[in-house]
Amino acid sequence: MRPYPMLVGAAFVALPVHAQDISVSKEAYSTPERPYSPYVNDHYPQNVYFGDTHLHTAWSADAGMAGATLGPDEAYRVSRGEVIESQAGGPFKLLRPLDFVVVADHAENIGLSDYLLRGDPLVLQSDAGRRWAQMMKEGNGYNAFIEWVDGNGRAEDQIDNPDMMSSVWERVVENA
After folding, report:
1. Cα dihedral 136/140/146/151 (nearest 10)
2. Tens digits of residue pLDDT in 44-67
């Protein structure tokens, strides 16, 4: 292999990199007398919004069965700046309210962990619901979650309670 073609190739690769190091100082350019944009001299964002775009609550099986106890109602309330009772039992308030929040609980068996935690009769109608509620009561929510995940490959829903699903959906719409 000849070194000459390699040197030429290296030079072509290095030129664009070197060209990016060139910058123009502020003194080298001037602003037109009549600026195109009224914001030319503003060096800060005009509209900054703070929020959460993917918040899971206890209504998602992954969060709720792993120990989260706060649901969408608390998520919306704390996002608005209200004081809520934290999962640890004390008062909690954000330093400033959020401008937006997206409660993004999973659709698969949404609300299941809340129903299990409360021992709701709708979820206790199934063998799986009774077993998982007992596991959560005993502090084995994570194991209940793993069992739930392993069962998701089945063709049928292990809870399969349309009344529970419609009840949860009504609460989701009401909270939103």
Report:
1. -50
2. 777 889 999 999 999 999 999 998
Residue 64 lies in a domain: yes
Residue with token string 């596991």: 135
Rounded Cα gap, residues 86 and 38, in angstroms: 46
Q: How many domains does the chain have?
A: 1
Q: DSSP 3-state assignment of 67?
A: coil
State whether residue 84 is helix, strand or coil. strand
Nearest to 145 by CA among 66, 55, 70: 66
Could you give the CA distance from residue 108 to residue 102 in angstroms, rounded to a whole number? 17
Is 127 a domain residue? yes
Residue 6 lies in a domain: no
Does residue 20 sit within a domain?
no
**CB contact at 8 A, 51 and 98:** yes
Q: What is the pLDDT of residues 100-149, one digit of tens each?
A: 999 999 988 899 999 999 999 999 999 999 999 999 999 999 999 999 88
Domain region containing 159? 51-175
Compute CA distances 152 → 42, 109, 157, 165, whole Å. 53, 10, 7, 16
Measured between alpha carbons, how far is 143 from 139 in angstroms, rounded to an integer? 9
